[in-house]
C-alpha cells in the first residue's frame, strides 16, 4: 500500500487533484444603511489638479529624448484629457536669467524702456519648451488653467544683482536700493502673459514669488515677507488689472501652509489683504491643518513632493511615501 501511495506522489503519471476555493460569503446582520446625497449642496470648490514642466521637464516631454510628435501628444492626452489623467492646471515657470528670461538687456534706469525679447525663436523649444507643452496640454484640455509663476525677478532689479541667491526686489522696505524697480518687474511679468497671448494662449493666474521664505542659493529665488510682498503687490495688482481684469494674481507660494499663513498675516497687517486673488502655497514644511487667514480668496497648493527619491510606480506595496495610495490620501 505504501508503494502505491509513493507511486502516486512521485510518479510522473500521477493525477493531482485541483483545489477549488469556496466562494466568499458574508451574512449581514446589521440593518441596511441608506445614504442620501444632495448634489445641489457644495462644500468645497476645486480649482483642479495639475503639474509643471519647469526646469527642463517640459523638454523631456516634448521630444528632447526622442519622443515622437505623436507620442508627445499621446502623453499629454494621458495627463490632461478629462477622461484620462484629468489634470486641469499647468504651472509654468517665468524665467529670470539672461538665458531663460525675456529681458534682452538690463535698462540703465527703471524709467528706461525695457528691452523685451520673445519666448524663443523656435516654438518647439521656446520658453524652455513650456510653450509647446502648454499647446499640447490645451489640445487635450481646452479648459486648461494656466498658472505663470516667477521664481525671481531679473537680477538687475534686485539687491543681489543676480536672479539666484535670494535677495529682494528693489523698492520694498529693507531693500535700501538707489532705484525702485518694482514697476519694471510688474511690467516684466505682464509681458510674459502678453507673449503667450500672442500665441493664442490665455494665462489664468500670475505669480511673482516662489518660496520667498527660503533661499536655495543655487537657483532662481527672491525673498520676501508679507510686509515686503505688500510693497510689491501694491504695484503688481493694479498693473495686472489694468491690463486684463480677469487675470488673477497669486500670493505667495510659501514653503508650507503655516509659512503661507505668516505671509498672509503680515500682508493683512500691512494693508494688502486685498492685493491678490489666490493664496498659493507648498506643502514641504507644514500641512494645511486649518483654514487660511485670507479675506475669502481661494487657496491652491501649487507644489509638493515627498522627497523620498525616484518615481515610484507601485500603488500600495510597502507603504512608502511615494506610492499611489499615499498620494491619494494626500489629495
From TrEMBL:
The keyword Nucleotide-binding does not apply. Residues 67-232 form the Glycosyl hydrolase family 30 TIM-barrel domain. One of its GO terms (biological process) is glucosylceramide catabolic process. InterPro entries: GH, Glyco_hydro_30, Glyco_hydro_30_TIM-barrel. Pfam families: Glyco_hydro_30. The keyword Hydrolase applies. GO terms for molecular function: glucosylceramidase activity. PANTHER family: GLUCOSYLCERAMIDASE, LYSOSOMAL ACID GLUCOSYLCERAMIDASE. This is Glycosyl hydrolase family 30 TIM-barrel domain-containing protein. It comes from Neocucurbitaria cava.
Amino acid at each position: 500500500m505504501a508503494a502505491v501511495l509513493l507511486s502516486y506522489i512521485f510518479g510522473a503519471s500521477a493525477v493531482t487533484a485541483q483545489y477549488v476555493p469556496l466562494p466568499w460569503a458574508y451574512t449581514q446582520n446589521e440593518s441596511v444603511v441608506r445614504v442620501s446625497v444632495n448634489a445641489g449642496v457644495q462644500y468645497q470648490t476645486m480649482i483642479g489638479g495639475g503639474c509643471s514642466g519647469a526646469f527642463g521637464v517640459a523638454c523631456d516631454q516634448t521630444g528632447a529624448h526622442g519622443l515622437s510628435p505623436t507620442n508627445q501628444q499621446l502623453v499629454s492626452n494621458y495627463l490632461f484629457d478629462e477622461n484620462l489623467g484629468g489634470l486641469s492646471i499647468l504651472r509654468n515657470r517665468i524665467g529670470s536669467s539672461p538665458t531663460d528670461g525675456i529681458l534682452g538687456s538690463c535698462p540703465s534706469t527703471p524709467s528706461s524702456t525695457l528691452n523685451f525679447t520673445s519666448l524663443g525663436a523656435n516654438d518647439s523649444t521656446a520658453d524652455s519648451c513650456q510653450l509647446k507643452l502648454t499647446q499640447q496640454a490645451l489640445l487635450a484640455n481646452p479648459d486648461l488653467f494656466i498658472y505663470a509663476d516667477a521664481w525671481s525677478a531679473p537680477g538687475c532689479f534686485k539687491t543681489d544683482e543676480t536672479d539666484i541667491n535670494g535677495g529682494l526686489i528693489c523698492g520694498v522696505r529693507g531693500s535700501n536700493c538707489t532705484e525702485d524697480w518694482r514697476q519694471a518687474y510688474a511690467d516684466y511679468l505682464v509681458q510674459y502673459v502678453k507673449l503667450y497671448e500672442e500665441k493664442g494662449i490665455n494665462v489664468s493666474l500670475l505669480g511673482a514669488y516662489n518660496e520667498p521664505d527660503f533661499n536655495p542659493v543655487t537657483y532662481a529665488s527672491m525673498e520676501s515677507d508679507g510686509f515686503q510682498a505688500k510693497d510689491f503687490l501694491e504695484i503688481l495688482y493694479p498693473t495686472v488689472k489694468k491690463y486684463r481684469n480677469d487675470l488673477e494674481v497669486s500670493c505667495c507660494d510659501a514653503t508650507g501652509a503655516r509659512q503661507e499663513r505668516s505671509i498672509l498675516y503680515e500682508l493683512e497687517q500691512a494693508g494688502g489683504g486685498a492685493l491678490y486673488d489666490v493664496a498659493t502655497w507648498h506643502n514641504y514644511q507644514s500641512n494645511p491643518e486649518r483654514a487660511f487667514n485670507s479675506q475669502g480668496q481661494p487657496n491652491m497648493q501649487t507644489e509638493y513632493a515627498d522627497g523620498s527619491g525616484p518615481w515610484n510606480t507601485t500603488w500600495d506595496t510597502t507603504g512608502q511615501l511615494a506610492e499611489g495610495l499615499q498620494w491619494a490620501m494626500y489629495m
